[in-house]
Amino acid sequence: MNAQTELVRSESALQRLVSLTERALFHNRLLVLAFFLIASLLLGWKALEIRPDASFTRMIPASHPFIQNYLKFEDVLRPQSNVLRVVVENPDGEIFTKKYMETLREVSDRIFYLPGVDRGNLKSLWTPNALWTEVATDGVRAGRIIPDGYDGGEESLAQVRQNILRANMLGSYVADDFRSTIIRVPLLEVDPETGKPLDYGSFTQALENQVREHFAAQGVTIRVIGFAQIIGDLIAAATDIALFFAITVGLITVLLYLYCHCWRSTAVTVLTCLLTVVCQLGLLSVLGYGLDPYSILVPFLIFAIGISHAVQNINLMMSEMGHGCTPVQASRRTFRALFIPGTTALLADAVGFITLLVIDIGVIQQLAVTASIGVFVAIFTKMFLLPVLMSYAGVSARGMRQQQKRANSSWPVFRRLARVVEPRFAMPLILISLVLLGVGYYARHDLKIGDLDVGAPEFRPEARYNRDNAYLLKHYTTSTDVYVVMFKTPQEQCSRFAAADLANQMEQTLRDVEGVESVASLYGHMRFSIFARNEGNPKWAEFSRDQYVMNNARSGAPSEFVDPNCSVAPINLYLSDHKAETLSRVAQAVEAFSKQYETGEIEILQAAGNAGIEAATNMVIKVSEKQMLILVFVIISLVVWWEFKSLKVTIALMAPLYLSTVLCEAVMAQMGLGVKIATLPVIALGVGIGVDYGIYLYSRMEGFLHQGLKFQAAYFEALKTTGTSIAFTGLTLAVGVATWSFSALKFQADMGLLLVLLFIWNMIGALVLLPAIASLLVCNRETR
């Protein structure tokens, strides 16, 4: 009795709160509209200032041990991590022409002065750090690749060719067919001219205008590969994303009008949803956030959430006006009916987004904040602004005729659908769902973490970036996927025999790991130097126990192979690809060697390089995915339980969402989509959005049950009102995002397909599976 009394008191308190809010809202309608008008103008003005935003450090899991090691030695490791490779190709033949070499010098100089370039580590055939070494009868000789007396003549060009071969640059800085060269461009995270984080959009645009387009007119082909170029291309594609957003909004507007046959309701709904997006962008700008390429789709999701809630409002408003209410009366009744379930559903949406904060990757955490701000805005626009606007707009006569037509319909489809709550239909339906769950578990077994393809999977295979990457892989033997192991010793001890011998053992071990194509390090340079200083006798191609010999061998080593204190010697592993399996295999091999051979003074630390950083990202995602899913289901379940005060109802609502999640992962596995930064948020977003359907439907059913209707009758009545809205919303949003399949961005097309499936599955789950489960859990003989 005490529990029931407390429940009644709690419900009474909520109803008093709703009544108080309703009176305050509708007695001050003009004041409410004035407030939203001023807020919209201010935030709309701030929204114009928002810019695409991307950062290398936000793309990596900053607290992971690999990344901590990388950041500790960032100065020496940067040339192999956040680096661009600019390929300058001579389409007319080999590079050994005066015109090409002069153009290459101009390209190198132009890139050197771009803001954000780590100029001290930039390397090309023309830079002073491009050196050759050879053994001669009088000892070791060395010099620059471009000799001091270079004049562009045939003799000078022949000398350049010889120097390239002496420096062993063929396959790394010069193409195997001598038709192109590479300029290695390490980037700084902070622009030294502005003191602000490097703007990848501006940087790649400057590279496009000042280098790629400018020198294409001079007869060379410029290709650019690297993280910054990927981000730059994604930012450049923002206009395409905006175009598809506009197409989706237009399509949804048309479908919404065809549904309600009322231009006033359609205009108010779409305007309110767009206003939500504008205010969201304005708040982001006020708080100092931008839109990075991976969260640029969030505004559409906020628009979709808005449509989902607004359609419920329109549908109930039309129903109330059909019973003779004025627009103001209908709006007030709609507000009373939808305030609690609507707010609960939006809170559940917010929970789905906020759980992304457990993933220790800045770009995903920013996505969580961006989406949560959007939901926060939606609570105000959908729960307060929309009812007030509808109290003025009402529903047109044509819309009311459409509503009357629906009310007089016999609803044959829904009558047949309502029978799913009968035990003879509910039990087989639940068994089929369990079979689908089993199939989903089996199919998702192949779900991988990370990238599953070469190149940049964000783009289609025929995209310019992937064509450039394919060219580099075809014409150069050195891979662009570099996994860097940090070999750490006490200061000035990296060239000791013990350290060199251990590093050599590790290199030999890692060369045998599948996926490792080659290894480059200080110790390879030292072996060659000792070999060269002993008349090229292969017997001397070994490390010496004489420290003087070892110190001499270290002299002249490239800066990317050792730090100034001789305490960190990066060992670069060039991999065949950056697939998750390859990265995991290499990381495990390094870890196994480290455990077996690492001494107290010598540490083997992982990992840097673009492949090492991606390996760390994959590890974080693998752990965080499970944590996120557990959190999202637990917290949303608590929200649902708080709303309905019933564990059985909570199970009935959450079960279809779990089935949708498993099926979504199964589809990802079969499509060859890995779980990574671009795909992981979709799962949380799908659960957050999908729970809306169930909350609205069961809330409506519960109202009919309290009126004394049997369960099947209550379900049928809920289908006639809320059910039509859910079906319309699910199908409309699915059709809208289906247009994304035509996007030039593969990741947008993939997200569109996954969202289509989630919208459809969540709709079917709410309309069919939820009532079937609830009928078996909640019903008794009296209520059936």
TrEMBL record:
Residue ranges of every copy of the SSD domain listed in the record: 270-392
Membrane topology: Multi-pass membrane protein
Highest taxon above the source species: Bacteria
A Pfam family that the UniProt record links to this protein: MMPL
Transmembrane portions of the chain: 30-48, 241-260, 267-290, 296-316, 337-359, 371-395, 425-443, 628-644, 651-671, 677-698, 719-742, 754-779
Keyword line: Cell membrane, Membrane, Transmembrane, Transmembrane helix
Gene3D superfamilies listed in its UniProt record: Multidrug efflux transporter AcrB transmembrane domain
Major localisation: membrane
Compartments where found: Cell membrane
PANTHER family per record: MEMBRANE PROTEIN MJ1562-RELATED, SSD DOMAIN-CONTAINING PROTEIN
Protein name: MMPL family transporter
Organism encoding this protein: Pseudomonas aestuarii
Source taxonomy: Bacteria, Pseudomonadati, Pseudomonadota, Gammaproteobacteria, Pseudomonadales
